[in-house]
Amino acid sequence: MAEQRPLPRKVAATAVGRCLLTTLRLLLQRRIHQPREHVGLFLRFADGTEGRVYRETVIDRPPPADPCVLVVAFRLRGAGHVLFRWESLFNTPLFAGFPGLISKLWLAHDDSATYRGFYEWDGAESAEAYARALWRILELVSAPGSIRYHVLPGLHRDDVLSKPELQEPADSFSWWRLVGTR
Predict the structure, then answer these.
(1) How far is Cα 76 from Cα 62, in angstroms, rounded to an integer?
(2) CB 47 within 8 A of CB 173
(3) Which stretches of 39-170 are DSSP H helices?
(4) Structural domains of the chain, with CATH
């Protein structure tokens, strides 16, 4: 994977602006849903951490032609975790309209105050473009140097949840690699 860095601010702002307009259309068409199927599920990662799913967002779209999983992580600056999880509901317009988004599992912070998003996308390039634009929003609330992402091309989110061994091999420090659920 190439060096991770955010998009230039103007490019990210333009992408988020387009996203907001698309999100409005999706909301008016009632294509954004928050099922509870995965809420409460714990996802365990290769680095020994785990996070509990506290929200799920799904966009009504055709099945992905080029599926991939995107894992995004960041450490919240400060200790306002309850407020952040509540307020994150209002962040939906900042991501739901990005091209290719299928679903997002919102994970509560782990023991190191790291939050994760566990997504399914249609297209690895779209997923990476989103992660690089999102970076500009996350840097406002994140501890410096804590934002990172990993794209897993060719995989569906639910397949990875049920069979983590489908992912590429990785070492025991791979913060992004799902090893199980409970």
Answers:
(1) 34
(2) yes
(3) 81-87, 124-138, 157-162
(4) 9-181 (3.30.70.100)
Rg for the chain (alpha carbons), in Å?
Answer: 15
Q: Which amino acid belongs to residue 49?
A: T
Q: Given the DSSP bridges, would you call strands 32-33 and 67-75 parallel, antiparallel or unpaired?
A: unpaired
Q: In angstroms, how far is the first alpha carbon of the chain from the final one?
A: 29
Whether the CB-CB separation of 55 and 117 falls below 8 Å is answered with no
Q: What angle separates helix 124-138 from helix 9-28, to the nearest 10 degrees?
A: 110
At 75-122, the pLDDT tens digits run 988 766 666 666 666 777 778 999 999 999 999 888 888 999 999 999
Which candidate, 14, 98, 17, places its Cα nearest to that of 57?
A: 98
What is the C-alpha to C-alpha distance for residues 51 and 108, in angstroms, rounded to an integer? 5
Do 142 and 56 contact (CB within 8 A), yes or no? no
CA–CA gap between residue 169 and residue 84 (Å, rounded): 33
Give dist(CA 127, CA 155) in Å, integer: 13
